[in-house]
Every structure is written in C-alpha cells, then in structure tokens.
Amino acid sequence: MDSLVVSPYGVQAIQVLTILLGAPLVSGVIANVEARFQGRRGPRILQPYYDIAKFFSKETLVTYESSWVFIAGPIVAFACYLTVPMLIPVLTTFPLPLGFTGDILGGGFILALAGFSVALSGAESGAPYAQLGASRAMTFGALIEPTILFVIFAVALITHTDLPYALSATIRSSTSQMVRPSHVLAAFAFFLVVLVDTGRIPVETHSGTLEFGMIDEARTLEHSGPTLALLKWGGAMKQLILYTILINVFIAPWGLASSGRLGSVGLAAIALLGKAIGLGVIFAVVDNSFSKLRLFKITEFIASAFLLAVLSVLVFYVGGG
Amino acid sequence: MSVVIVMLVCLPFATAVVSWLAPVKFSQYLTITVGVITFVLALALLPRATHSTMSVGSLLQADALSVVFLLAVTFLYATTSLFAKGYLSLGDGASGARYGKRFYAGFNLFCWSLVVAPLVNGLALLWVAIEITTVISALLVAIDDTDGAAEAAWKYVLLASLGLGIALFATIMMYYAGTSVFGASYSLTYPTLLAGAVHFHPDVVRFSFVLAVLGYGTKMGLFPVHTWLPDAHSEAPTPVSALLSGALLAMSFYAILRFFQIAVRTLGPGFPRDVLLIFGVATLLLAALYLLSQRDMKRLLAYSSVEHMGIMAIGMSFGATIAVVGVLLQVLAHAAAKGTAFFGVGSVVRKFGTKEMARIRGGVGTLPWSGPMLVMAVLALSAMPPFGIFRSEFDIVYGGLTEPRDVAVAIFVVLVVLSFFGLSWFTTETMLSENPSDRAPGVDGAVIVTKGEVSNWIVVAMATGIVALLILGVHPPSQLTQLLDRAANELGSP
Amino acid sequence: MSASPSTYDGVAAVLSLLVLLTEFAMLRAPLLRSQVRLYAFQSLVVTVLAVYVAYSKHIDELYVLAALSLVLKVALVPALILRLLRDANTDLAGSSVVGVASAILIALVVAAFGFFSVGSLQVSSSSLPTSSLAIACAIVLVAFVLIILRSDVVSQAIGFFSLENGVSVASLVVASGLPLIVDIAFLFDLLVAVVVFGVIMRVHHARNATLSTSDFDRLKG
After folding, report:
1. Domain boundary among B65, B85, B119
2. According to the per-residue pLDDT averaged within each range, which of A98-112, B312-326, C5-19 is highest?
3. Which of A180, B278, B401, B470 is deepest in the core (most CB within 10 A)?
C-alpha cells in the first residue's frame, strides 16, 4: 500500500475530489458545532449531503421571464469551484502539473467569476430579494477586491512570485517567517476576507431568514431542484477552498504530503479536513461572539481589512518585514 | 560659580513652595526680591561665561549661549514680579487670597522651570524642563476661569504637548544618531554630543533636526503651528502673557539652537539654515499680515511675538557671525521690549477695562507715565532707534548682506516694514488720540476714563524695561558683547 | 523568497504593529469609554514590548521602566480619565468630523507617509529595526489624525497620550540604552501632563457642561 505512488495528475484529481466531497462535511460539522454553542442539538453532521441529494431529486422551476442565464449561472459557478483546487496547494507541498496554469491572481479571478455568475443568475430571476442580494453581493465584492489585491501583493513581495505553492513553502521554511509582521498582517487581512466571502457574522447571518440583512444568501432564493443543489454544494466548496488557502498558504501549511505516495496523500486529505474543521470552529466562535453589523457599517469592516492588507505591504517595503 | 548656578536652580522653586503656604502679601514681596536676586545672580555668571563654560556635576551647565537666555528670563522674572504687584487687584476675600496663592505659586514655578531650562546639560533634560514650562503655563493660562481662558488653555496645552511629543521623538532620534559613536548607552550631554557630532549618521541627524524644528517650533510659534499662541497670550493674565512671550518662546528657540549646534557639525551649515529660513519667512509673512488686522490689543502683541520669532529664525539662517550675534541680542531686546509692552497694555486694560482697541482712546493722555512708555516699547518692537531691537535687526540685515542672501534680506526688510505699519497704526489710534471727555460723550463707543496711573509698580517695571532697551540699543556693555560673540561662535560650525 | 528579518525584529515589529492597530481602533471607537480602554490596552502592549526588549537585549533597567509604565499608563491614567467620564456622565461626545471608513483611509495615507519618510532615511544599520521605527512614526502621525478628526477633549487627550506611546515604541526600539533616569523623567512628565490635562478638561466641563470642543470658536484671528 505504502509503495503505491499516484501520478501527479492523479494527485490533482484527488485534490479536486477532496474539496468536492469534503466540503459538505465541513459545512455540516460547523453547523452542528454552532448549534451546540447556542445550546441546540443541531442538525446531523451529514445533513448537507442529504440536502444536496434531496435537491437533486426535485425539479427545477424557472420563471417565464428568466433566460438561460438563470440555469447557466449555477453550473458555471460549480465549474469554477472545481477548477480552483487544481491551482492551490490542497494536499501536497510540491507543485502539481496544472498548478502553473494559474497563479494566485488567476485563482482569485476564477472565484470572482463564480460569484459573478451566481449573482447574475440571481438577478435574472427577476425577484426583488434575489436582485437585492445580487447587487449587494457585487457591491461588497467590489469593495473587498482591493483588499484581496493587497494581500496578493504582500504575498508576491514576500516570495517574489505569485504562486501559492511558493508562499506555502516560504512559510514552512522557518519560524521567523511566521512572525514577520507583513505576513501576520496579510494573514489576518485574508482571515477577514474569508469572513466576508463566506458570509459570516459580522457581515451576514448565513443561517438567518431575514431577507433585509441578506447578501449572499438572498441570491439563491429563487433557485430550486438541481440548480439549488449545485449552488449549495458550490457554496460549501467555496468555503472549503477559502479555508484551504488560509490554512495551507497562510497559517498552518503543515501535514501536507511531500510525495505522491497514496498513504501520505490520503493522510494529507484527512489532515486538511481536520484543519478545516478546526478553522471552522474558530469561525463558529466568531459567529457566536459578535453581532451582525448594520449593512452600512460593513464598509467599515472592509476598510479595516483593507487597512491590514495595505499595512502589510508598507511594512514589507520599509522594514523588509 | 557653581554655588550661583545651584542657587539659581533652587531659589525660585523654594519661593514657589513658600508662596503656596505663606499669605499673599508676603509672597508678593518675596517674589519681587527673589526675581531681582536671580537677575543679579545671572549677571554674576556673565563675566565667567564670556570665556569659559561652567558646569555643576553632569546635570547642570552654563555656557555663553545659556547665559544669554538666562539673562532674558531672569530679567523678565524680576520686572514681571514688579508688574504683577501693581497689576493684580486681589480682593480681600477668600477668593482673592486663593487666586493670589495659586497665581504666585504657579508664577514662581513657571519662572523656576524657565530658569532651569537653559541651565540643564543635555537634550533629554532640556526636553523635560520645557515640558514642565508647558504644563505649568497652561494652568496659568486657565487661571482666570473664563470661557476664553478655558478654550485658550486647552488649545495651548494640546498643541504644545503634541509639539513636545515630536520634540521627544527628535531627542530620541538624536540619541540614536549618537549610538553609532558612543555605543548603546551614553549620556545625552551637550559636550558629548558636540564632540561626536562629526561622525553621526547625517540622515538621522537631518530627520532629528527637522522634527526638532517642528516640535519645539510649535511652542516657539513658528508657522503653521503657531495657532495656540495668540489665544493663549490674549486670554492669560497679563504677567503670564509677558513671560510667555518674552521667555517661553525664547526658551523653545533655545532648544532649537541646541539641535542646530549639533546639526551644523554633522551636516554642515547648509541644510539647517535652509530649514530655518523656510519656517522663518513663512512665520514672518503670516505675522505681518495678521498684525494689520487685529482688534484685540493683547493679540496684536502676540502676533508681534510671532513676527519676532520669525525674525530670529531668519537671522539664524543667514549664518554670518554678525547675524547670529544680532539674533542673540534680539532675544534679550525682545524680552525687554515685549515685557514692557505687555506691562503697558496691562495698565491700559486695567484702566479702560477692555482689550478692544476700538474702545480705547487717548492712552497717552490718561496714563501720563505708562502711556508714553508703552508707545516707546511699541516703537522699540518695530525696530526704531535708539532701542535694542534696532541694533539687533541691523546686525541681522548686515549679516545677511555679507553672506550674501540678498533675496531673503529683501523679503525680510519688506515684511518687517509691513509689521511696523500694523503696530504703529494701533499706537496712533489708541494711544495718541484724544480721550472723549465727560462733557463730550464717547464717540464710537470709546470708554471714558479719568487721568491717572493704575499703579506705580507698573511704572517702575516699565521704566526698567525701557532703560534696558536703551542700554542694549545705545551702548551694550562690553562684557555683554563678548558674551554674545562667544555664544555666536559656539553656534557656528567649528 | 526574500530574507526574513530576525525573530527579534519580527516580534518587535509585530508588537509595534499591534500598537498601531490599536491606534486605528481608537479612530474607530465611538464610545469615549472604549477609547480609554483601548488606550490601556495599547499601553499594555508597549509594556510587553519593553519587557521583550529588556529580555532579549539583557537590559535590566527596562524592567523597572516596564513596571512603572504598567502602573502609570495601564492603570493610573485610564482610571483618572474614566473617573472624569463618570463625573461628567458622558458616553458619547459624538464628534467624528468624517465617517469611519474615510477616517481610516485618511489615516492610512498619513501612515504610509510616515512609513516612507522613515524608509527614505536609508539607514542600513544592523542595530536598527527599521520597520518598528517606521511603525512608531506612523503611530505618531495617526495619533495626529485622531486629534484632528475628533472634536471632544477626551479623544484629543487620549490622542496625545497615545502619541506618547508611539514615541515610547520608538525609544524602545532605537534607544533602548537610554539612561533609566531619563526614561523616568519622561514618565513623570507624562504624569504631570495627565494631571494638567485632567484639570483643564474639568474646567472646560464645569464651564460648558460638555466635553465637546465644538464651541471652541470664540478665539479667532
């Protein structure tokens, strides 16, 4: 078993599969933990899988006014979420063949394309709340984009490259890399970006039903059946992808497979899910310790993330830190 | 001589403590006595300072430069305590006694910090001393407990503290500049710094000098951080205004000169002079323009202080020894002239009960002694002969022409003339006009008063100032010129 | 990949950064009380930095300084101001001149200016943690922004005290060998300044029954 070596392309396929199959599990665990924090028993850990399966078995309803974009949006988004895991270090320390087809900026673009197609599809439904969600998501997306760019600049400055693998390797190389201020700042800024992008408190209540406060959630209100399943699944994958980047590129790039042996790749997959669940618990704690910001205060939140990212670049320029 | 220095440091402090405990009447006379004694002590330092540097331990030091500023401060200490005796009308009740107690304790403490500042040896201690002058004078500005005083005190304490925060930063950078020569731990005394200055890192010293000019410049009243100055000067009790203007501003200038002294050794004269020239010209320009549009007497004098600080900064930037001598003479003459002018304004304000110039008419007629002397002081401030400031500004211009800095000199002369217009307009309007008599009731809302002096103490204080101005202008004693020459040499590049 | 700074510099810079971020948080905090608490936290970070410098450079004097600053800046000063706030019975002076997001952006530009002005010094010395010094400079400048953008006496006073914290950071990173007596003199001075600020704030409150500076427009020209 140990001597079984998977080809790099195989590892790449396993990366995508890990994200694809692990994402609902991570979401399920977080939902459960969160419920326990609030003193409820919470849903089963595997509930997201059941949900997705159930949605696939239902029919999709489309309004008369909606065009093909309404159906295409979720599919494009899902495809995007399947593409990104090929570019980032999910399981291995060494770069995989397709890892060079896109840098960190490319990954960001693909994620943005996914968000855009979901929003477009929501807007196409013609329903007021879905349109509201779509427009809000685009607005805050545009505001968070500079922060992401500055995080990427910081990463690129530290590593002299914009490949996620290279940063991951830099962080692993010594402890002093972990405490260097520009890295700490960039990591924290990215943490805030993840909060915004996964629709967590203090930006959005992801499990609420109050349409007025909704941003990302509102976009999917009009979808049903398989397209809703794709959206739910895609959302879970997006969350896991962002967690993976945060973990493997910024804060804890350990436990990755250093060779293509099946055993270590499998262990890395389990380690990743474990770390993601750990991180998810942190997010759940954040979720339960803060209250949601008023919609117009979200700009302040994003401004502080931006602040951290810019400071990260500045500190690098001045102190080499 | 060390006994003299130690006495200078201890006496005013002891006086402050006694004034807090003793009855007001006693502290008034005690303050006058101590003020005169400190001036005599400072004079006693003069002969030695013309040829050597005196130091007590590693903490206190008096060289020619510090003695120049010490003379200015102690002279004002003596005359202002005379003036305060005549100016303050303390009621007999408990509130008057409380006010008097607070005032005299604060006044002596303020003078103590001003006397200590030029005598300490080292940039760090200098910063501490100047910070103490700030906090105490801020309390003195607020002492009148009016709306205006509260506002002025807040602006003053906030801005001055911020400036001193920057100055502290400058001090620390200067310390850092020294670590490359003296190692991580050493003492920031002037002789140490001056000895090693040649080897300091020029960029660090440059940074430190700019910070120092900005930081101490806030307290000196340099543009654009002068904004607290007119408010504080106009709202403080007049004795405090005189000290603020004549001594406190000069003391901040002294701190800048200490940084200048080090900076010219590291950087050569070019950069420090240019910095001072830019700040000086901007300050002088602003002051000249504001002098033309003042309605409040004490604010007018405050802007005149801003003007003189600008003149001193420009004078330093000319760099020729004669110009530097002029600047130092200007410090002394400005202290005397501005003190006297504030005393006169204090007399006028007591008499007319207002600071508004529109309501003051016929000052010379109603105040037979202090009126004319106020006119003389204002003429002295506008650099009229035969007073000291004429001589000092003449030196500065002469120095600028020898350097040669013709454009700067031309700007300088134009702006000084402009401020002369502002000051003389005020003088003729308020002092040399007719006071409306009882029979022909007031025109334009001018206050009607009867003829007579407010207090003889004020007259004595002003006469002392005028005599000093005349001595400085007509024939400065030879020891004083030696002192100024030595101080100017200390400031020049070696 | 670029060479990372030494662990000492890195930790010092992260601690200084924490001070800077607290400064930004103050810019954001609307409640006066929370502003005072942030100041206490900031002072605590400065104290930790002092202990860290003392520990790694073996300068025992700094422990004394750290202890003093703990007593003075973390406990005493905030307590004094909180008491003033209690007496004044005010939570909000409602005084930000511009919105929070704009304030942060302005402060960011100003901080960048501070960074680059220190960066332009071009001092390449092994004993100088340039990033910490640059951050200290940025702290000072952001404190200025805080004072300018807030119009109530408490925020402005806190702005001044935190400016002093910024200077402390600078003195810890570039002048850790400064004689103890000087450091103590600085701290003593701060204490005096705090008392005077307190007195004048009380006078202002007693006269105007507000902590806002919006009526500070009587003196002009």
Report:
1. B119
2. B312-326
3. A180
Give C-chain residues touching A160 at CB under 8 angstroms. Answer: 1-2
The reply to whether B259 and B168 lie within a common domain is yes
Q: Which amino acid is at A148?
A: I
Task: Please check whether residues B86 and B13 belong to one and the same domain.
Answer: yes
C142 lies in which domain range?
9-89+98-208
C17 touches chain A (CB under 8 A): yes
Sorting pLDDT into bands at 50, 70 and 90, what band is B438?
low
Closest CB from C167, C179, C213 relative to B168: C167
Report the candidate in C156, C190, C165 with the shortest Cα–Cα distance to residue C21: C165
Q: How far apart are the CA of C37 and the nearest CA of chain A, in angstroms? A: 19
Write out the DSSP string of B310-329: HHHHHHHHH--HHHHHHHHH
Contact A181 C112 (CB under 8 A): no
Interface test with A, best of C122, C131, C135, C173 (most A CBs within 10 A): C131
Cβ of B185 under 8 Å from any chain C Cβ?
yes
Question: In this structure, is the dihedral angle defined by the CA atoms of residues A102, A103, A107 and A108, taken in order, positive or negative?
Answer: negative
Q: What is the pLDDT of residue A1?
A: 47
Q: Could you tell me the end-to-end alpha-carbon distance of chain C, in angstroms, rounded to an integer?
A: 57
Other beta carbons within 10 angstroms of residue C7's beta carbon come to 16
Range of the domain at B462: 283-494
Chain B residue numbers with beta carbons less than 8 Å from the beta carbon of C167 are: 165, 168-169, 172
Count up the domains in chain B and report the number: 3
Closest residue in B to C214 (Cα) is B151
Q: Is residue B125 part of a domain?
A: no
Q: State how far the Cα of C48 lies from the Cα of C140, in Å rounded to an integer.
A: 19
Q: What is the pLDDT of residues C159-192, one digit of tens each?
A: 999 998 999 888 888 887 777 777 887 888 788 8
CB B312 within 8 A of CB B304: no
Query: How far, in Å, CA of B216 to CA of B258, rounded?
Result: 11
pLDDT, tens digit, for every residue of B240-269?
A: 999 999 999 999 999 999 999 999 999 888
Question: Which of B268, B291, B316 represents a domain boundary (last residue)?
Answer: B268
Q: How far is CA A51 from the centre of its chain?
A: 20
Q: Rounded distance, CA C17 to CA B142, Å? A: 38
Note whether B292 contacts C: Cβ–Cβ < 8 A: no
Contact (Cβ atoms closer than 8 angstroms) between residue B109 and residue B13: yes
Question: Of B147, B162, B201, which is closest to C163 when you measure between CB atoms?
Answer: B162
Listed residue (C163, C171, C179, C162) closest to C12, CA to CA: C171
ipTM: 0.92
Side-chain-facing half-sphere of A66: CA atoms under 13 Å? 22
User: Are B361 and B457 part of one and the same domain?
Assistant: yes
Query: Is C4 contained in some domain?
Result: no
pLDDT tens, position by position, A190-234: 999 998 888 887 777 766 666 666 777 788 888 888 999 999 999
Place of tokens 């003479």: B329
Our CA-based measurement puts residue A188 at a distance from the nearest CA of chain C, in whole angstroms, of 12
| CA B350 to chain CA mean position, Å | 23
Residue B341 has pLDDT above 90, yes or no: yes
